[in-house]
Write a structure and sequence with these properties.
Number of strands: 2
Oligomer: single chain
Shape: elongated
Distance between the termini: 57 Å
Strand content: 5-15%
Number of helices: 2
Length: about 90
């Protein structure tokens, strides 16, 4: 754990904790929200690595504004032609 604390990682000067509720919810501590520049509505990603969890903010950019961006199989020239008049 010493690699996460102190000069090796500027975000941590000591261990940051929070409690889990009976509904498996927790409040992300202010220091963590600040370090990740989190705001209400942001999406989070969790990666489990060797018994630890890495939490990151998902940056979807412009893709988040287009709900159909994930449907790549419907993004062909034939589809564009077929649905051009809709």
């Amino acid at each position: 754990m010493s690699t996460l604390i102190g000069k090796e990682n500027p975000y941590f000067s000591s261990m940051i904790t929070s409690r889990l509720t009976s509904k498996a919810q927790t409040t992300i501590p202010h220091a963590v929200r600040s370090a990740l520049s989190l705001r209400a509505g942001d999406e989070l990603a969790y990666v489990i690595e060797q018994g630890r969890v890495v939490l990151t903010r998902v940056d979807r950019g412009a893709q988040a504004d287009d709900p159909f961006a994930v449907f790549a199989e419907w993004n062909s020239e034939a589809d564009a032609h077929a649905y051009a008049d809709i």
